[in-house]
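Technical appendix A lists one of the benchmark inputs used to test multi-chain prediction within the project. The record comprises two sequence entries:
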Amino acid sequence: MSNHSHDDHHGSELGEMQLRVRALETILTEKGYVDPKALDLIIEAYETKIGPHNGARVIAKAWVDPEFKQRLLHDGSATIATLGHVSRVGDHLVVVENTPQVHNMVVCTLCSCYPWEMLGLPPVWYKAAPYRSRAVRDPRGVLADFGVSLPKETEIRVWDSTAETRFIVLPMRPAGTDGWSEDRLAELVTRDSMIGTGLAKNP
Amino acid sequence: MDGVHDMGGMDGFGKVEPESNEPVFHAPWEGRVMAMNRAMGAAGAWNIDMSRFSLESLPPVDYLGSTYYRKWFLGLERRLVALGFIGADEVAAGRALHPAKPLKRGNFKVDDVQRVMSRGSFTRPPQGPARYKPGDRVLAKNMHPKTHTRLPRYVRGHVGVIERVQGCHVYPDTSASGAGDNPQWLYTVIFDNQDLWGADADPTVKVSIEAFEPYLEPA
């Protein structure tokens, strides 16, 4: 849902959902299916540990290490797994590279498939009808909604995540960053640049 | 199914409106829904294809009119009742009234949390050789199953080109009905935007889908 309609619905929805969700959790807990402490830990992991910083580290390394980048483009999951400090990733991660000729954008028109181990849980806009409907037909219009404008000649490649393969965009390295450390470079990598609705930040 | 969830190319939904500094969850109940869904899935109550189909099967007014996590809650409650894990009477009462049904992988405990921190593998041994290779022209079938599929309407009947062979994976169309993995070869198939949307479409755009072999015919 758009931010506007989310706010409109939020008040009345909040009361209804608090009650219904609490009731469901009570039932599942009383039946022994789930331990509420386990649910707390899952929530905490997504609020504090799993997020775009994971993906940003991978992108920064690819920028400084050409051999790592080639391996990454060849097999995303296997290559990312070699980085001990990144949380465990599942199979089927595919990294696609932006070039001056081609800009990549990732969508799931059918639901909300997203590389959450690398980027955290997806934002509301990614899962909502405007993006899901327009990305595969008018990606330039979608980029305009994000304030991004690409040269007319740039090819835009949209990847619809209709199976379990998950795509992460390797954005172009900004100019003026020669000699930067990986940590410093990672700060330029935004979540949106790894989805393809944004570009990496300029220094 | 040809449901409202199959949104590629639809008009009328307006601009994309990103929220700045968006929180992971807009209210605590959203996090509880996400966690309950992950936990019950990890415990083996259903597979991911079944859970997707249950959302697709929500009444259109609920699908289109609900926020994301409300949709997930509605699907979660529906699945739990339909599969016999909870009773409709328990939902009405807000508490357990009957004994629990055994879960395939047992009740979800703190020790199980690590398992949901990354996705499992959907790769399976192939049942035969891959039919297509990169460069092959393929037609996305004009198929309209009433059950779960991952072939979006906007490519059906259109010709694309195999770009990558992604391996052999669990086939969602059969997995969603509980009929087993039935592994199929998966391909990245790329389409030209003007082929999909007509002569007025942006000629600089190409769109790909991840297509299972049964969705395709040689072209």
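Chain A touches chain B through 86 residues (CB under 8 Å). Residues 3-30 of chain A form the longest helix (28 residues). Comparable benchmark entries are summarised in Table A2.
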